[in-house]
Amino acid sequence: MIGAGQLARMTHQAAVDLDVELTVMAQADTDPAVRAGARYRIGSHADPAAVSAVAALGDVVTFDHELVPAAVLARLEGAGVVLRPGRRALGFAQDKLAARADFRAAGFAVPAYAPVRAPGEVTDFAAEHGWPVVVKARSGGYDGRGVMVVAGPADIPPDVGSTEAGGEPAGPAWLVEEYVDLVAELAVVVARRPSGAGVVYPIIETTQVDGICRHLVTPAATVGPAVAAEAMRLGTAVADHIGAVGICAVELFVAAGGRLLVNEVAVRPHNSGHATIEANRTSQFHQHLRAVLDWPLGPTDPVAPAAAMVNLIGTADCADPSHNLPTALRVSGAHVHLYGKESRPGRKIGHVTALAATTAEALDVATRAVAALLTP
Ligand SMILES: Nc1ncnc2c1ncn2[C@@H]1O[C@H](COP(=O)(O)OP(=O)(O)O)[C@@H](O)[C@H]1O
Ligand SMILES: [Mg+2]
After folding, report:
1. Ligand that lies nearest to the alpha carbon of residue 144, given by its number in the listed order
2. Nearest bound ligand to CA 143?
3. 247-287 pLDDT per residue, tens
4. 226: closest CA among 286, 170, 186?
């Protein structure tokens, strides 16, 4: 697995259960998966020789992020390395502009968007679609980094027309899109084998604040069963369309009237699937390994009527939330996960999941445990 963050750490836990010989490629020996005891190699995911050396250690190469440059992926595929997911599917997660264009051409509804080569193109777009607009980095963004809501011409970041000289993807480094008045955001988590055989988890409703996922509930609390069913159908179709292998998470916007728009895809275990560890019969991390190794997938049924997950996000007030662990563990029913990461404001350093009879009850339990962890 290229990358050794919390996704690799939780995949390592699943690998232990199945006695899968997982090696992670880490940037430092303090990375979350390494701290959890995963076998590792240190190196840069952008260094073709280093990635090739790690690839030679296993039968299958998979990923905890989407940062391996396309040129490196092409070289690996050319050398016969089995990438799961493959380069094409990873491309959809690496390039928001190309993904929007491809999805639209394939008939999937997406927000109105345009590439941006100069600040004036943001103004032109807003003249047609209205303010505010959303300006986004074409690649490399995550947790809302690289996503800006722009209220008017004065807010347009001056460097928005810059292109990544010599970088990839070639061309404009930014896009602008309509600001969607969100009724809700949904995530569809799918697991797909190389043959395309797949399973889908029950619908997940996520809540983002400043672009970063704060919490999720399942089943969805805001949308009814018809929208939820349509979302699962749409998410599965998108995962099929991109040819994902392993876990694929499809982020959807719900606009007025229950209209669904495809936001973005991730082709790896995803934050929106973390509750599956306790809340579903097979966790997304087991499922990811099973899918990339082309083994039978497990059932996705929920094991409780409702579940919630709250991310533990570092704050300036609390230097080390792990000191509060004993207090958080007093919250009955709270499943606490700490990633072994140094706390910094805005950084995901853990999460808490709770199961209950209702999503409100589950959210209350998980929220109380997170509040205990974040007590200054
Ligand atoms: N066009 C949009 N309209 C309204 N909200 C948006 C739009 N694009 C992004 N957002 C908000 O910002 C969040 C992060 O944007 P996203 O494109 O998913 O980037 P990231 O790669 O950081 O997850 C979304 O989950 C949503 O809450
Ligand atoms: Mg997103």
Report:
1. 1
2. 1
3. 999 999 999 999 999 999 999 999 999 999 999 999 999 99
4. 186
